[in-house]
């Protein structure tokens, strides 16, 4: 076995292991399939053993591959730590912030906040990652994360910004087609749901409304409701922002989730991260009524 291993080959090995195929690893890395294949093959030559079995269903770790995961991930953490600590040496609020946030927060709300931030800090650029997947801040997948969650149990810095409320919406024309909506408890109407888990319908304001469509994004639900497909229960800050839908009269708001701003402890002294965190905290404080009314 070769005495020194190429970190880049180990990094590609971890991504191939996590994605399950050379093709998906190449897509994540932004390289071609051959680059990933050559890196893994070179690592196998250096180790003197096969780490993946190539099957029609994807990559399967061999015993040697499984034993490689822990030391490779240890090295990954060390490399990330070095990068974070070097990033922490800057003092001037400038450079790039990689911001991870769910799509529900990435529409009008984000644009409004970024306009003020860009004016206050013209030398900072924000690159966003809109995803419902939780970005791993320890692995440096993002610098800052805006996250919707009940609680946060990671070893990260940050704070809860606000707890938003949810409301039930529909298009005005849909309400005209269902004038007895409240009295009938939703009979004849339809919900647009988030997922296949629909136990919440029984305790909703309209338990007799059937689930007809499943759309897993806030923007998709609002668009569908605006076109008259049914009822939706979404964060009020998102529903109120679209004039094509209205809250169902007489239905009280319901408690939603918390919005957090999070970042790794190694970045807490980075000027641009501090600036963004402080600005975001102030923004949400000033806009609290938008989220809670």
Using brief descriptors, characterize the structure shown.
293 residues; alpha/beta; Arc Repressor Mutant, subunit A; D-Maltodextrin-Binding Protein, domain 2; 3 domains; two-stranded antiparallel ribbon; 11 strands
Give the overall shape, derived from the CA principal axes: globular
- Write the CATH fold name of the largest domain: D-Maltodextrin-Binding Protein, domain 2
Poorly predicted runs: none
Provide the helix percentage: 25-40%
- Tell me the strand percentage band: 15-25%
Largest sheet, if any?
7 strands, mixed
Assembly state here? single chain
CATH C-level label of the largest domain: Alpha Beta
CA-CA gap between termini: 64 Å
Class based on secondary structure composition and strand pairing: alpha/beta
List the secondary-structure elements in sequence, H or E: HHHEEHEHEEEHEEHEHEEHH
CATH-level-4 superfamily name of the largest domain: Periplasmic binding protein-like II
Number of helices: 10
What would you note in describing this structure?
By secondary structure, the protein is of the alpha/beta class. Helix 1 packs across helix 3 (33-47) and helix 1 packs across helix 4 (63-87). The chain folds into three domains: 7-77, Winged helix-like DNA-binding domain superfamily/Winged helix DNA-binding domain (Arc Repressor Mutant, subunit A); 95-158 and 261-283, Periplasmic binding protein-like II (D-Maltodextrin-Binding Protein, domain 2, 3-Layer(aba) Sandwich), CATH 3.40.190.10; 165-256, Periplasmic binding protein-like II (D-Maltodextrin-Binding Protein, domain 2, 3-Layer(aba) Sandwich). The N and C termini lie far apart (64 Å). The protein has ten helices and eleven strands. Helix 5 (108-120) links the parallel strand 3 and strand 4. The strands form three sheets. Strands 3, 4, 5, 6, 9, 10 and 11 form a seven-stranded mixed β-sheet that branches. A two-stranded antiparallel sheet has the order 1-2. The mean pLDDT is 90. 39% of the residues lie in helices and 23% in strands. The radius of gyration is 24 Å and the shape is globular.
């Amino acid at each position: 076995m070769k005495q020194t291993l190429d970190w880049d080959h180990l990094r590609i090995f971890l991504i191939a292991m996590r994605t399950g195929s050379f093709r998906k690893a190449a897509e994540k890395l932004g390289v071609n399939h051959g680059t990933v294949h050559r890196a893994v093959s070179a690592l196998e030559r250096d180790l003197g053993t096969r780490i993946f079995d190539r099957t029609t269903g994807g990559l399967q770790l061999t015993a040697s591959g499984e034993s490689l995961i822990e030391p490779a991930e240890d090295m990954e953490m060390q490399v990330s730590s070095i990068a974070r600590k070097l990033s922490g040496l800057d003092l001037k609020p400038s450079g790039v912030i990689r911001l991870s946030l769910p799509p529900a927060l990435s529409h009008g709300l984000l644009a409004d906040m970024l306009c003020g931030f860009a004016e206050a800090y013209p030398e900072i650029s924000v690159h966003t990652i809109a995803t419902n997947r939780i970005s791993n801040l320890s692995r440096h997948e993002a610098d800052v994360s805006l996250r919707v969650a009940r609680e946060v149990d990671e070893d990260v810095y940050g704070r809860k910004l606000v707890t938003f409320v949810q409301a039930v919406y529909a298009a005005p024309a849909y309400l005209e087609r269902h004038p007895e909506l409240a009295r009938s408890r939703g009979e004849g109407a339809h919900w647009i749901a988030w997922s296949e888990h629909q136990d919440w319908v029984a305790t909703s304001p309209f338990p007799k409304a059937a689930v007809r469509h499943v759309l897993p994004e806030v923007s998709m639900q609002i668009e569908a409701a605006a076109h008259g497909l049914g009822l939706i229960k979404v964060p009020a800050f998102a529903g109120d922002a679209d004039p094509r839908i209205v809250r169902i009269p007489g239905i009280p708001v319901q408690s939603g989730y918390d919005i957090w701003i999070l970042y790794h402890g190694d970045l807490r002294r980075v000027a641009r991260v501090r600036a963004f965190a402080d600005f975001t905290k102030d923004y949400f404080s000033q806009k609290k009524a938008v989220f809670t009314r």
